[in-house]
């Protein structure tokens, strides 16, 4: 048998010629255990205690390890040879599971191998040992694929240490020689983990009894650091085996050389390397209990400071030696990894500079680059030798520091050739190599994981693009999962990487909605960012079809003059439609608006507001956002809004719903409209009617004026079954049943009278912006409603009776009078609520005055400007009067609308020259009291079109379709995909 270690002159040995003979382990499988590896910190490694792992006791296989020497001190790396006979279990465990048959084994440490391949070989290695009275060897299995949940192992059988010399009698099915555990320790020198070292130190060194005259049992008492190996017939230094960075001391136990044996042990006990290892052993022994109860992480490593008020690493190392001090293993590794401190000369070495002012210029920071061992202490103002500070504390360059800059060159030359410096430099390099190797091993799983994640993210980019593609298309039915996969597979034909990835990875159907939600978050974040960078914003709320939802649309103007109307989200109320719940959810939806961005107005289409709730909602919104006021959106029709408001009253809800169904019927059936006009002419004796046929917001008025013709139309549809389809006939029957009762006729007559009263105000607010005129007409309309409420009930009731010729006489019913009174009161409240704050928008008339009139002749000009300054004190409108006068008299700006003006100011880069005018233009364009300027297709109309095409509506899908232009813009930004994928992954893992 070859010598495992050759002795050096000083009694130590170096593992340059290490050649381990094959070792054989006792194989006695006793049971099979299922081990859940989810609790292990490193899922790629699983420690399995036992003599060996076997599945088939009838098979034998020899496993050996080869040795590759390294450049540093002959330290060996090991490259494992995978056994030729290995059983693999793959299906139910989600990956290949290595099961090593009964074998004899030469077992190298798997964690020392850093393979550059993505998929390492299956390896195993010994980890732990325990001698006296029992011993164990341990093995690590490292899978070539990610371990999923369960690994099957065999429990070990422990053997008494005395059986090492006389191996256990093998079973009939196998041959089971013995193995020497010390060979495992020699190969795994300096690569034990912290937990493994704790176990080894607690168990102590293996100390077998040698059958030799050169050995005495009392040697273990005199030299407690001795460890023995019967197979090698040698003793080793247990301290050096675990902690020495120079080499492992060993000597043979010869038969008749007792004196030489004692001399070798005494000589080694006096060496510096043994003292260093012995100190580390003592520290570990004293801290074993503390370490066991302490969980340390990389992020929590803090280097202790001694003295407490010192922040200088050199000072702390001198006071608390690197080897002898109370540093933990992680702290020592951190010091080695951080490297030497090199403070700057002028800014840091103040003490050194003050004591050597005359030669201050002789030192240059380039010395640090020329001498890689040179370091400095800013606190002491001295230069030091970094290797000597760590490993040779007794010396001028390590303990006291160097201050004589005039002799710096000579001092460096003398120190560089000193033996302590050379030995310390060697030790530092060995430590650096060990730290580097350990770091590489620890980083390898993370690097592999990152590579897998990079490929997954590349794949997800394609998926995100495909999802965006389908969501931006307007279809009646949503795309199916198969549609997504077809597009992805088509793209993969042009991308080999994607094609390869699709073989192992696909995406599930439920992931599509998750990706859509992640895209929604990114879109909303961009909209929020744009809103908070604007000076003014208004809120527009509208009902979503027949659902109990409100769509949230924000309107604002960018600095370049672009008018934005962005859909943000849906607000769902479900069963709780109380005004408090609506208010809470609306305020929560716009809670992101910062103080610098002014919410100047809000509006809604009355769909979810009862007439009496409007005043409460407006007051609470103004209380939360003092600069905001309710306004009438120029795109809303006042008659439609009134009907929406009445639909929230219990006595009108069913009636308004029936009217809405009639509106849809006539919108979709143009033949019915033509037939109705013909029937009306027949009833009037062939004369063409002068009345306007309104089949939308004025349909109730049309019903009131042409009730007989409409009833006759539906009766003919029912009788002429051949001319109309089945669905139309069924609708006609329902409409007859809906319109004929007195209840419906009374509501038709009542609401028609109210719509006629507000007709003038409706047309005025759609065609002309004049706050004073709006206010006057609104007051007149309210007075007319109140007058009708007081005087016209009997007339309206008789009108409802006369719609149908009947012999039955109706007696005056008090119930109808009460309904009439409630409806008229609600209508008057509705008109007052939508027009009471018009005076707060009077400054909007500045837009008309400044473009159509001479400001010097306008009596209201100064009043409006003062009103604007009062309402927005921090917007700098004090200069607006002068800048509007300049606008009115300058030929370049004359005749331009405000949406043209703001773009022109931005293009000429005159925002800083005309700041008040620029902000005033933004203010005018943000508010939509009248259609001064708006996007080509308002967002409210785009939302309505989207609702008509879709049966299934979600907030994410709606946002991606309505804001498709913004989504396309985001897809050109690389950071967009990272944000979407990160949010998607966080949702899967439950992180937020």
Topology:
Elements: E1 6-7, E2 12-14, E3 23-24, E4 32-36, E5 46-49, E6 61-63, E7 65-69, E8 76-80, E9 87-89, E10 97-99, E11 103-105, E12 126-129, E13 134-135, E14 137-141, E15 150-154, E16 159-160, H1 181-187, H2 194-203, H3 219-222, E17 226-229, E18 234-237, H4 238-243, E19 248-252, H5 258-269, H6 272-286, H7 288-292, H8 313-319, H9 329-338, H10 345-348, H11 350-355, H12 366-370, E20 374-377, E21 382-385, H13 386-391, H14 396-400, H15 408-416, H16 419-471, H17 481-492, H18 496-502, H19 509-533, E22 536-543, E23 549-557, E24 563-572, H20 579-589, E25 598-604, H21 613-624, E26 629-630, H22 638-646, H23 650-668, H24 670-683, H25 699-705, H26 707-719, H27 726-739, H28 742-757, H29 759-767, H30 771-791, H31 793-802, H32 814-835, H33 846-852, H34 861-871, H35 880-889, H36 898-907, H37 915-926, H38 939-949, H39 955-962, H40 964-971, H41 974-989
Parallel strand pairs: 6-11, 22-25, 25-26
Antiparallel strand pairs: 1-2, 2-19, 3-11, 4-15, 5-14, 7-8, 9-10, 12-14, 13-16, 17-18, 18-19, 20-21, 22-23, 23-24
Helix count, DSSP H or I runs of 4 or more residues: 41
Distance between the termini: 62 Å
Classify the beta-strand content into a percent band: 5-15%
* Shape estimate: elongated
Q: Nearest-angstrom radius of gyration?
A: 45 Å
Number of domains: 4
pLDDT < 50 stretches: 1-179, 290-308, 346-355, 357-362
Biggest pleated sheet: 5 strands, antiparallel
How many strands? Answer: 26
Please state the average pLDDT score: 73
Helix content: 40-55%
Q: Kindly report the spatial arrangement of strands forming the biggest sheet.
A: 1-2-19-18-17
